[in-house]
Amino acid sequence: MLDPIISLGMKKLPQEHDFSNWIKKINYFFTEEIGAQTSQVSQYRETFAGFIAGFHLRNRNLLLVGIDEVLANITEHTYKYDKKKKIGISVCVDTNHKVLILVQDNGVPYNPKEHKAKSPKTQFAKGADGGYGLYLIKRIFYKIDYFSQKKINTLVLLFDDKRVKNI
Amino acid sequence: MASSIDLSTSEKASYSVVTVAGKIDSDTSPQFTKVLSGLVASGKTKIVIDLSAVTFMSSAGIGASVKILNDCRSKKGDLRIAGIQSEVKKVFELLGFAAAFTFFANVATAAK
Questions:
Q1: Which residue among A1, A147, A151, B22 has its CA within the 20 to 30 Å range from the CA of B44?
Q2: Out of B23, B27, B97, whose CB is closest to A120?
Q3: Which residue range(s) make up the domain with A111?
Q4: What residues of chain B lie within 8 A of the CB of A42, using their CB?
Q5: Cβ neighbour number for residue A135 with a 10 Å cutoff
Q6: Is residue A131 part of a domain?
Q7: B23, B59, B66 ranked by CB distance to A124: nearest
Q8: What's the structural domain count of chain A?
Q9: Å between B95 CA and nearest CA of chain A
């Protein structure tokens, strides 16, 4: 049973949101906490890139884009760049190149499963400079889950290097 | 260490060339946008962005590029992308923008 050390306080995941069985054998596990600042998102992405450097992931860069989009969205939309707010991230990498990521915040809940991603084609036609992040997140990750409990929001991201859609 | 980018501009044929080095994300895209918007504001609407030294681009950078492309085209200009690395281009492709932008191997061919 995966028992992530989540910095915001949760010790175990509710059973219906526990995807630890998806990971067959934990090869690498790491947990971090960052502040809600774009500079820290960038810094974490570099740290994350270092952690996964030893794994042969064909879509490694897309995984980095995915985690960057998630953290940037929380920083901008959930926390409104409040530097005092924290984001907890736990990552498990398995031997079959699956990556399980838990991202936690204690802001206003935003369940990406309940929001339809904007069409990039439509955004492009409008010349929009934003509105592409959620679409990328939904394309890059194999499965997304979300729940809020005791004022902690947990986003569960499952990345399967062999099942990135249409790449 | 957080991301940083280096930006420089030059002129080649009838194009303004913006050369970028580093990673374009939510932290650095304001700098990227500022340089490109400055060119458009000064009437330079034929732009080549040299991305050959860009190793990462999130939606923040792509969104900025979409907006500038739109601004350029609305003023009968154009925005071309030169030297994009395959890993960065994958993100454009994932968004379905492989044909929406015009990609060139290098600045020399883009600015012809």
A1: B22
A2: B97
A3: 15-157
A4: 2-3, 23, 25-28
A5: 20
A6: yes
A7: B66
A8: 1
A9: 6
